[in-house]
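Risk mitigation, structural track. In case the binding assays with uracil fail to produce interpretable data, a predicted complex structure has been prepared as a fallback.
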Amino acid sequence: MRVVTLDDPSDFDEWRAKARALLLADIEPSEVDWEGGGAGGLFAGDDSIPAPVRTSVPAVPRDFLNVASAVLAHTDRRRHATLYRMLWRLAHGEKALLRIATDDDVAWAHTCVKQVSRDMHKMKAFVRFREVRHGEDTVYVAWFEPSFDIVKRVAPFFVRRFTGMHWSLLTPSRTAHWNGETLSFGPGASRADAPTDDALEDLWRTYYASIFNPARLKVDAMRREMPVKYWKNLPEAKLIPGLVRDALPRMQAMVDKQPTIPKKKITPLQKAVAAAPEGSITALRAQARECRACDLWKPATQTVFGEGPVHAKVVVIGEQPGDQEDLAGKPFVGPAGKLFDRALEEAGIERDLLYVTNTVKHFKFEPRGKVRLHKRANAEEQAACRPWLAAEIDRVQPEALVCLGAMAAQAVFGSSFRLMAQRGEWIDLPDGRKAMATVHPSYLLRLPDAEAREAGYAEFVRDLGLMRGVLG
Ligand code: URA
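Fallback model:
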């Protein structure tokens, strides 16, 4: 057995360099015993890695490197060995390994990635910086106890968010420091190194109390999303028991104060139900093939109608078909569809249980040479297609609607709906159904940096996971 010592067991570059050296030396995974927390530089103690017998290693998919980098932040002691085994398998012909969700190594890696992403999401949501004055300087310091070694992965998010501040983020395993120009990392700190109170917190507490809506109090959801272990670092946490206690009387007061019954907002979709075409879903699909309500049918290959179980509990509504959907005649089969499928799988939802459709049923594009560039359907085109969507919902009779992107959300909730402010929560519709909106997978594909994409994807998976409560 060869003992390979890692100086920093969470460091991707170090593991990658050593794994690569092992691969070049043709050392099988079963011959390696990985040890974390060793002393020394990159190759210290690694006389156990013999000289290379190959000159290069086969290219591995980018996805694997992303998975490996997230998994290394986990605390599972098997992570170095399992990742090396996966790398070995990829390099020895199992090119599609990552797509085999039932493979033990792949399933384990995906679970780790999910847990690390969730931990990162919590850190982004629950870190609270406190003001500390050093003479003329003001530094903001936060203490946080993540479950995994995620500081290096999350710090760029805080750099983007608090670029103009000088701050230090302290955790038991690692610290991060931003001086307005440089991001640096140091060893772990203790809770005593972080201040516990400051004037800003009073302000924050006042704000939190003022935005707290007693009518929307869901204690279980709150505990799930804001686990009690984080409360001790949250200034607003002190208010929570009192706000919860007073929620019922405050809600009653709100109800008593309602001067009149508010006018129901009728969305364009509900209006369209009255004019929805008749017939079964199959009949509707056939009629929609001949739709001439706007001009989009002319350049398009075909109408892309919804598909899925006729009495699905959830109807998922996208925006409009893309190039590949237009050719296949099926919704969400192109790149956005693939991302949607992956996110559904991670959220534990079978696509086969959903009726998936679009707000607009034709591909709109602008020809550029051989390429057909996607163009957003305008308001008239969206309105012309509304009766089809209304008819699909009317025939399927789902319990819930899930909107992907602003176009679908505004079709369901009306044009005043603001996606980023109202995403990820069920909202009751006047017809007794509930609906939820989240981002469109194409939006995630367009995000320029990997960090934002990863965070956005994790939130997308979380939003989609809300469907589990409906699907049972
Ligand atoms: N985007 C959508 O909104 N729908 C599709 O069917 C494909 C991409």
